[in-house]
Amino acid sequence: MAEQAEQGSVNIQAACAILLAATVLFNPALALAGAIGLPLSASLVASTQALIVAGALILGMAQPKAPPYGWIAAVLGLLAISALTGAVRSQFDAKSLGDVLLVPAFIMLGARLTPRRLIVTLVMLQALVLIVGIWEVADPEGFGATFKIAEYYVRTRGFSEADFWAGGDLFISSERPQGRLLLAGSGLHRGSSLFLEPVSLGNWSVVVAIATAVLWSRLSVLLRTGLIVSTLMLLIICDGRLSLSVCLMLLAFLPIARHLPERFSVLYLPGCILALVLAARFGLLIDTGDTFAGRLRYAVDAFGRLNIDHLLGISSKRVGMEDAGLAYFVVRQSIFVAVGLWLLLTLTSLGDDRAGRICKHGFMLFVVLCLPISNALLSIKTAAFMWAVYGFCYGQARRRAAPAGLGAPASTGDDPPTLDPPIIIGARGWASGHG
After folding, report:
1. How many Cβ atoms are within 10 Å of 248's Cβ, its own excluded?
2. Contact 246, 204 (CB under 8 A)
3. Taking CA atoms, which of 139, 163, 323, 433 is between 20 and 30 Å from 336?
4. Which value, in Å, is the radius of gyration of the alpha carbons in the chain?
5. CA pair distance 119, 239, nearest whole angstrom
6. What angle in degrees, to the nearest 10, is found between the helix axes of 354-370 and 380-401?
7. pTM for the complete prediction?
8. Residue ranges per domain, the chain?
9. Where are the beta strands (DSSP E) in 153-280?
């Protein structure tokens, strides 16, 4: 029986890791399939994503010893609200439902991950992303011909060929009209690696930076160095202005955040909205166009255009505002989902240890800094791993909080027989535990 239980745990861990890796790999895999002549469509991409999210939901909810009832209730609530707003609009929006369901789905999946499995998955994905990113900047023609990114987005995302003004097979934003921020004059384009577009590669870099801080005490010096250096290289490759700015802000703030109560993060979103409103009121956001101030101005203006139908999520017009991520989220989901999900994410305890505090403050601040000017953070390509790390910290906190004798470490059926063994990964092997 013990051997069967151990084998079942290994199988579950492997399945969780495969699903997590699939969130990063399914887009380039489909693009590669299209490049060799296989038929592609928007429905195929949506169906693939739906299967991944459904798999995460099934694995996440199937925890017989300690079901995550709170997150299961959140899933049911999101389904009910989606059905209600869809009935009012007389149109069901599967994409919007999928975008929001991936949050509890990957939190529950992350809660099942052991430290070793999460770290191995992170390191392998980061290595693969870096290798492909270096290949892309070294041989953009070969990379573009392999994945035919422009064709992929035309066939699956509703883009037109005229949108790709720079020409070639790379994504639209692979070049900026005003040039690169980093390595200006180098002649390099903005890289995208496995994410196929630069903004998501920038978001991935921030997620990895926060995950590295969360897992810091579990990593060897070798892996700490490797993750830091590779993240810096990816930031340069993608030339991400926002991602670089967020990383610098987090570098300054997270050492302070580790001493703040984790639920203090609930103030970030209302504080951000208040700051934007005051900045607009006092004339500090007068710029327009593709600058940071201009994007913030667009976000404030987008808030001003919201009407009651937008706030209730029942507007028949559900396009536009894509560059104002928070307003876009409200229009697609409703103010009730936006506020409810924010409260659930910030008030759910991830534990009072260093890792839980950094995870909560880091990811919630990242969301607040990105959402006003972009909806890219909602993409499964980067959001899934972020919420899985959040879920991992949530699962660890549940195990530590479980009363002695009730099988705290076995609450998900996946963990080794100690409460929270440090994992050291380095040159001597992938992982070793110490009591």
Report:
1. 10
2. no
3. 323
4. 21
5. 26
6. 150
7. 0.89
8. 2-176+185-402
9. none
Give the whole-angstrom CA distance, residue 344 versus residue 362.
16
Residue 152 vs residues 36, 41, 133, 268: alpha-carbon distances, Å: 11, 9, 18, 37
Q: 148 is written with which tokens?
A: 């035919």
- CA dist 409 and 413 (Å) reads 8
The pLDDT of residue 413 is 40
Instruction: Residue 49: name the closest of 104, 97, 13, 121 by CA.
Output: 97
Cα separation, 344 vs 331, in Å, equals 20
CA atoms within 13 A on the CB side of 179: 7
- What letter would DSSP give residue 199? H
Q: What is the pLDDT of residue 400?
A: 87
Q: What is the pLDDT of residue 290?
A: 66
Distances in whole angstroms, Cα of residue 412 to Cα of each of 74, 232, 390: 19, 35, 16
Amino acid residing at 383: A
Query: Please, is 196 exposed, middle or buried when counting C-beta atoms within 10 Å of its C-beta (0-12, 13-18, 19+)?
Result: buried
Look at residues 395, 432, 348 and name the one whose alpha carbon lies nearest to residue 16. Answer: 395
Q: For the chain of 435 residues, list the mean pLDDT of each consecutive stretch of 10.
A: 57 94 97 94 94 96 87 96 91 88 96 95 98 95 93 89 77 79 80 94 96 96 97 94 90 89 93 89 75 78 86 78 80 93 95 92 93 82 96 93 50 39 42 34
Side chain identity at residue 296, one-letter code: L
Residues 6+ apart with CB under 8 A from 430: 116, 120
Structural tokens at position 207: 């997620």
- Give the DSSP letter string of 84-109: HHHHHHT---HHHHHHHHHHHHHHHH
What are the residues whose beta carbons fall under 8 Å from the beta carbon of 66, sequence distance 6 or more? 398, 402, 411, 412
Task: For residue 63, give the amino acid letter.
Answer: Q
Which pair of tokens denotes residue 310? 């937008």
The tokens for 281 are 């009121």
**C-alpha distances in angstroms, 118 versus 112, 128, 253?**
10, 16, 25
Contact present, 325 and 373 (Cβ < 8 Å)? yes
Q: How far apart are CA 289 and CA 297, in angstroms?
A: 9
Mention every residue, 6+ apart, whose C-beta is less than 8 A from residue 182: 235, 236, 239, 244
